[in-house]
Amino acid sequence: MGCPPLHGWILSVHTGRGAFGSSTDSPSRSGPSSLISEQEFLARRGDRALRLGFGGSCPTEEVGLVVQRAALRHSAARPAVIAAANLLARWVPNLSVHLPEERTGSLAMAVETAVRTANPFLEIRWLDTPPLGPSLTIGPSATSSPNGLTAWADGWVAICNRRPSPAPSSTPITSVLLFAVTLGVGGVFREAWKLPVAGPPELRWDTWNHSVGGAPRSRERPTLPVRPPKLGNVLQVGAGAVGSNIIYFLGLMGARADLLVVDHDVAKVENLDRSLLFGLEDAHPQETPKADAVLRAVECFPTLRVRPVPSKWAEYASKDYRVGDFDLALALANEDQVWAEMAHAVLPLTLQATTDSDWGVAFGAHAPGSGYCLQCRFPLEAQVAPTICAEGPVEIQSAPGEAETVHASLPFQSAAAAGLLAVEIDKLSLGPVPGAPNYVEAKLDVIEQVLSVHRGRSLQCRPCLDFPEELWTAKYGTTRFAHFSQLSRWSE
Ligand SMILES: [Zn+2]
After folding, report:
1. Cβ(489)–Cβ(370) below 8 Å
2. Rounded to the nearest whole angstrom, what is the distance from the C-alpha of residue 55 to the centroid of ligand 1?
3. pTM
4. Are both 91 and 171 inside the same structural domain?
5. Alpha carbon of 335 to ligand 1 centroid (Å)
6. In angstroms, what is the span from residue 368 Cα to ligand 1's centroid?
């Protein structure tokens, strides 16, 4: 079985071949050793949440996904629907889907495939009418359900609403809508877990300047639809939750890139609640190195080419890294001081995205040679313990009348960090953007303001002192995104 084609390029990641013993398995992949029970799969996938005291599986029986017919007029809608189905299926106990087309249509097939990748035991319940329980609606909507959220985009504005959403005045940009979907799934998560409502009833996050709440639109923003970005040679360090999700989003966006993916870890069932790119076949019965799992998964994204390097950054850097080989670096590993170590390698423009342990997501753009490098942001001495990611405190009812605050694993948080990164990658491909922030930070539980600033270099930063700008310009001055570094210097 191949990948379902959509839009001339192919969207869906997995093909339905699987290691879980269903009747559709190919003979070579099925067999007693490959079997895993649904009970074991769910227990291991939810292991982190359970261990942290979240109290078991999601208390809401069914969560819905609704697609508005008007949304499908826009090319951004189909990738967003597929990503939403994938992200919901990573944690919901049951999923109902209402699509404005036949179940045999290409979008329905792509949704089926995405859900099967996320959870091979989850059967979609197809609905003729929108569901009543917690749900995510994609597209402009004239009505709202009491516990539903709408994700949509108006040009560069990511919209996440509890109210009806009017039709957009600008064409939704794919990366912005993918980001809106991650915010919407976060809202549905709160509904499904019966957490207090957080954030404004109507969130309009202008990703062009990262302001929320309907700030005036900048005159400088482009009005033409954004084309899929062309990224050239990309060094990606880390293929964990944020790293695998950005590859999934770049594939859905149709981005062109030659990615060298460095990661020493293996894909585990425990990772499958938050890595949209990976499926059970990557994690069971054998735990595939994440770099190799990426190579397998991008088979269905023809605009992406991947060279896997299943080793640690330090090992790769000491043996094979050559200064000047890449147009862009993505620093997405979060252990062993790797961010600070990377700063010593004389990198091209480096983008970084991360999550924290308090519902937070952050993005940083680092321009070595001209200011604010990775080590300016993450000094070596500041990273003594492994970073805890993709979690947040939530208040649950531990007994009748008693509330308890526990730390929960948040399955949408890494996708939101990757969505923020995807938006910034889209902007990068448009050329210099004067005054653009190089640091963005927000909390996903109460999005009332987004911190966005332009940061300069630290005067004590060793790599910044060691590598003069002339060296950087000699090695990277003609690469695809050198303009960003020049702009960074002008802004300081
Ligand atoms: Zn620095």
Report:
1. yes
2. 43
3. 0.90
4. yes
5. 19
6. 7
